[in-house]
Amino acid sequence: MPNHYEKSEYLLERALKTIPLGTQTFSKSKTQFPFGVSPYFIDRAQGCHVWDVDGNQYIDLINSLAAITLGYNDPDVTAAVQSQLQQGTIFSLPHPLEIFVAEKLVEVVPCAEMVRFGKNGSDATSGAIRVARAYTRRDHIAVCGYHGWHDWYIGSTTRDMGVPAATKALTHKFTYNDIESLHQLFREYPDQIAAVILEPMNVVLPEDDFLAQVKELAHQQGSLLVFDETITGFRYAIGGAQEYFGVTPDLATFGKGLANGYPVSALTGRSEVMRMVEEIFFSFTFGGETLSLAAALATINKLQREPVIQTMTASGEAILSRVQALIDQHDLGHIFSLSGHPTWSFLLMQDAASYSQWEIKTLFLQEMFARGILTFGTHNLSYAHRPADLDRLFAVYDEVLPLIGEVVDNQQLEAYLRCESLQPLFKVR
Question: Does 1 have pLDDT greater than 60?
Answer without folding.
Answer: no
